[in-house]
Amino acid sequence: MSIMITAKDNEKVKYTKSLLKTKNRNKESKFIIEGYRILTLAIECNANLEYVFINEDFEKKEEHVDFLEVLKSKNIKTYKTTNKIFDDLIDTENTQGILGVVKFKPKTLEENLTDENRFVLILDRIQDPGNMGTIIRTADAAGVDAIVALKGCVDVYNPKVIRSTMGSIFDMNIIHTTQEEALRVLKLKNFDIVSSYLDTNNYYNTVEYNYKTALVIGNEANGINEELVSKSDVLVKIPIYGKAESLNAAISSAILMYEIKKYLV
Q1: CB count, 10 Å around CB of 40?
Q2: pLDDT per residue over 145-192, tens digit each?
Q3: Angle, helices 129-141/249-261, rounded to nearest 10 degrees
Q4: pLDDT tens digits for range 75-107
Q5: Of 102, 122, 232, 238, which shows the fewest CB atoms inside 10 Å?
Q6: Greatest CA separation found in the chain?
Q7: Averaged pLDDT, 107-115
Q8: What is the model's pTM?
Q9: Interstrand relation of 192-196 and 234-236 (parallel, antiparallel or unpaired)
C-alpha cells in the first residue's frame, strides 16, 4: 500500500529533491535512481533501497503490479505523488514514473581492497557524466576489482552517471580517495601503476602486464596529471591511425581494460 503525498512542501518530497545536489548526496550518503529497470536491478543486487516514489500513472500499468508487490514484501516504503510533484524530483524529461533512494557506504581504499584483488582502475579527474557511467559499466564487464575515483572526478552518484552505468553502479567496488593515498596503498599491495599517456613509445599491446595492475585513465581534455605520470611504473598508448588527436576517455579505457585483463585471467 503506497502512502499518498499531494503537497509539494512535504518533508519527504523536499528531502528527496535535495538529493539532486552533490553536497547533499555526500552529506546523507544517499542517491536517487530513476526508472523501472534500474529499480529492478537494485532489488536483484540487494542494494540498500530505503524508499520509492511513484507517480499517479505508474501503478495503473498492469506490468507494474508484481513489482509493487515485491516492494511491499520487502517492506520498502512506497510514496505516491502527483505527476507534477514527481517531475520535480528527477532530472529527466521522459519519466517512467518511479524513483528510489539508495543508501551507500563511504569506503576507504585500505579496507576495501583485498589481497585477492588484482585489477584496479584509477580515474583522474574524469568529468563527463556519460564517460564516467560508461567507464563504470565497462569496468564491470571487464572484471575490474575496484574503481578508485580521485579528487576532481564527477560525482559517481550524479543521476546522469547512474543512468549511464546501466545498473553496474550496484556491482562495482567504487572508492573515493586522494592521489597520495591511492599510490601509497597500491604500492604497498604490490600493484604496478600503468598510465594511458600519449608521449611514450610503448604501445598498449606490446607490454606484458603485472599480475597486479592499476590502470590510470586521465581527464578528457588534459590527460593524467604529471605527478601521477612520474610515479607510474609503465606508460602506454593506443595507436592513432587516422587524423584524430586522441580517443574518447571511455573508449580508451575499454581498449586498455580488455587488453590488461588477458594477463590476469
Answers
A1: 14
A2: 999 999 999 999 999 999 999 999 999 999 999 999 999 999 999 999
A3: 10
A4: 999 999 999 999 999 988 888 999 999 999 999
A5: 238
A6: 63
A7: 94
A8: 0.94
A9: parallel
Cell triple for 40: 529492478
Q: What is the pLDDT of residue 1?
A: 66
CA–CA separation, 69 vs 57, rounded Å? 16
With a CB cutoff of 8 Å and minimum separation 6, the contacts of 149 are 123, 126, 156, 174, 175, 176, 177
* Mean pLDDT to the nearest integer, 25-46: 96
DSSP string covering the chain: -PEEE--TT-HHHHHHHHTTSHHHHHHHTEEEEESHHHHHHHHHTT--EEEEEE-TTGGGSGGGHHHHHHHHHTT-EEEEE-HHHHHTT-S-SS--SEEEEEE-----HHHH--TT--EEEEESS---HHHHHHHHHHHHHTT-SEEEEETTSPPTTSHHHHHHHTTGGGTS-EEEE-HHHHHHHHHHTT-EEEEE-SS-S-BGGG-PPPSSEEEEE-BTTTBS-HHHHHT-SEEEB----SS-S---HHHHHHHHHHHHHTTT-
Instruction: Give the count of alpha carbons within 13 A of 53, CB side only.
Output: 28
- Look up residue 125 and give its three cell numbers: 579527474
**SS (HEC) of 68-115:** HHHHHHCCCEEEEECHHHHHCCCCCCCCCCEEEEEECCCCCHHHHCCC
Q: How far apart (Å, rounded) are the C-alpha atoms in residues 145 and 154?
A: 20
What would the grid cell of residue 79 be? 510514496
